[in-house]
Amino acid sequence: MKVDGRCHCGSVRFEAEVDPAKVVICHCTDCQTLSGSAFRTVVPAAEGTFRLLAGRLKRYVKTGESGNEREQTFCPDCGTPVYSAPVGPQPKVVALPVGAIRQRDALVPSDQYWSRSAQAWLRTLADIPARETQPAFGARGEIGLGPAE
C-alpha cells in the first residue's frame, strides 16, 4: 500500500510503501517518551521505499535496553517524529509513526510489543468517558465549553 505523510507544520513530507498487516503498537518506555503518549503505533516501510519529498530531517541515535542503536528522525521545526531505523546507510527498513501518515485510518495494529511496560490504565480505556471534541481550557486549567457557557 502506498502511503504519504507529513509533519505537523507541513515542512516535511514523505511517501513509502507499507504492508497494512504489519502495523504494531510499541509500549516500550522509549516509545512512550518519543510519542508523548502511552505507546507508539508504527508500520515498517518496505526496504528502500521511503522517500523524503520535502524538508529536512534532524537525526539522533538512541541505544535501547537491548543495546541496539536506533536512528530517530524528526522535523527540526515542529518536532514531529518521521521515522526510526537501524543505524546505517540507505536503503533500509524504516518504522513510520502511523499518526504522521495521511492513510492512518487504514493502518490497524495487529500486534503489541513491550507489553511489560504498558500503562496499566490502558486496560480501562473503554470505561473512560469520551467526548466528540475537546472542551476549552482556560489559562488556569479550568475546563469549560467556551465563551457562551
Could you provide a short overview of the structure?
With 149 residues, the protein is mainly beta.
Description of the molecule:
- A hairpin with a 6-residue loop joins β7 (69-74) and β8 (81-86).
- The model has no long low-confidence stretch (mean pLDDT 91).
- Strands 9-4-3-10 form a four-stranded mixed sheet. A three-stranded antiparallel sheet has the order 1-2-5, with no helix packed on it.
- The protein has one helix at residues 29-35, and strands at 2-6, 13-17, 24-26, 40-44, 51-54, 58-63, 69-74, 81-86, 95-97, 111-113, 136-137, 143-144.
- The N and C termini lie far apart (46 Å).
- With 149 residues, the protein is mainly β.
- The protein contains one helix and twelve strands; from the N terminus they run βββαβββββββββ.
- It has a single domain, classed as Metal Binding Protein, Guanine Nucleotide Exchange Factor, Chain A (Beta Complex).
- Helices cover 5% and strands 34% of the residues.
- It holds the Pfam family GFA.
- Belongs to the Gfa family.
- InterPro entries: CENP-V/GFA (IPR006913), Mss4-like_sf (IPR011057).
